[in-house]
Amino acid sequence: MTTREDPFPISGIDYIQFFVGNAKQAAHYYRALGFTPVAYMGLETGSRERTSWCLRQGDVRLVLTSALGAGDPVAEHVKRHGDGVHDVALTVPDAEAAFAFAVAHGATPVSEPQVFEDDNGKVVKASIATYGETIHSLVSRSEYSGVFWPGFAPIEHPGDGSGFGIQNIDHVVGNVELGKMDEWVGFYERVMGFTELRHFSDDEISTEYSALMSKVVWDGEGRIKLPINEPAEGKRKSQIDEYLEYYGTPGVQHIAMATTDIVATVDAMSAAGIEFLRVPGNYYDDAKGRVPEIADQVEALQRTGILVDKDEDGYLLQIFSKPVQDRPTVFYEIIERHGSKGFGAGNFKALFEAIEREQEVRGNL
Question: Half-sphere exposure of residue 278, counting CA atoms within 13 Å on the CB side?
Fold first, then answer.
């Protein structure tokens, strides 16, 4: 028996880059999520147009980038969209080959393969477009030993990077316009060889007022999982409609980060000032019956607002932050998996009702 060679091998998410109004201040804010700055690029390192901070926690790297002048494309991006995700970068063994394959299969090129070098070796990067103004950089770094990237200076004594217990990125969720979900599912299937893992209809993800549809594409191994949402017909404005209105284009809605002790992680983030969505207390009345494995944790889960769900493979614990910038756009999910490959379908109604309560407070429901 022979196995099919992967035409687009991906090792994982290399980094997620945000374009922000003030990278230095944003880097300080992200300490409330347990991230530590480990590398910096700016005027002091010879960068005259942009400043960037690389933050780390576990295997997660976030890059926060700001413009140093009003005419820079980063400044224009922030003006239109506010702070948001620009690049979901993927680690690949050969960036040149990955880029060539992607473009040959219909991807729109953003930047040709480039080599970045310093005394620590070299990194090769190319970029392709995805939904909205989001891109995927394709990064090969097997010949680089520096802390992050050529041109970045390491930060002295950054700490051990363990933060609040975040281990890795579980999935990255994109919001697209009505009627565009299947188009982008097809893009990932055609360009990267992904397959559909889950499909949630508007009947499954709906409340009295709003609904959405979602499909999850993945690499087949679980290293990359990318749910894609689109709005569905409802009585009032859905969370996807609200996102598209304030972000001004399709883009990354939320980033799910995995931990092995969600209660400790959420306690630490809450103490640092991160706000999480809450569901009514009666949500937990049947939690032990639905998921008996968490019977001894129910009190801690209710105290912290953590949700629980179960499927044929196991169970998961999850919680969602409120938006982490002024516009109601990007937020975070914290997730702890115990075998489950799902996304908390049993929590959709309670979660979306909680989101709608926040929308109503903002006057956007």
Answer: 9
List C-alpha distances in Å: 101 to 4, 51, 105, 126, 263: 16, 32, 6, 12, 43
CA distance 161 to 59: 9
Tell me which amino acid residue 194 is: F
Condensed to tens digits (0 to 9), the pLDDT of residues 272-324 reads 999 999 888 778 888 888 888 888 899 999 999 999 988 899 999 999 999 99
Q: Could you count the other beta carbons within 10 Å of the beta carbon of residue 156?
A: 5
The rounded distance, in Å, linking the Cα atoms of 218 and 132 is 20
Write out residues in the chain with pLDDT < 50, as ranges.
Answer: 1-3
3-class secondary-structure state, position 78: helix
* Range list of H helices, 228-339: 239-247, 262-271, 287-290, 298-304
Answering whether pTM is above 0.90, one says yes
304-307: Cβ within 8 A, 24+ apart: 304/263, 304/266, 304/267, 304/270, 304/276, 305/266, 305/276, 305/277, 305/278, 305/279, 306/262, 306/263, 306/266, 307/279, 307/283, 307/344, 307/347, 307/350, 307/351
Check if the beta carbon of residue 33 is closer than 8 Å to that of residue 218: no
User: Which tokens go with 259?
Assistant: 């931990």
Distances (CA, A) of 237 to 182, 208, 232, 244: 21, 11, 10, 11
- The pLDDT value recorded for residue 351 is 66
- What does the alpha-carbon distance between residue 312 and residue 80 come to, in Å, rounded to a whole number? 43
Q: What's the Rg (C-alpha) of the chain?
A: 20
Return the closest-CA partner of residue 153 out of 119, 115, 113.
119
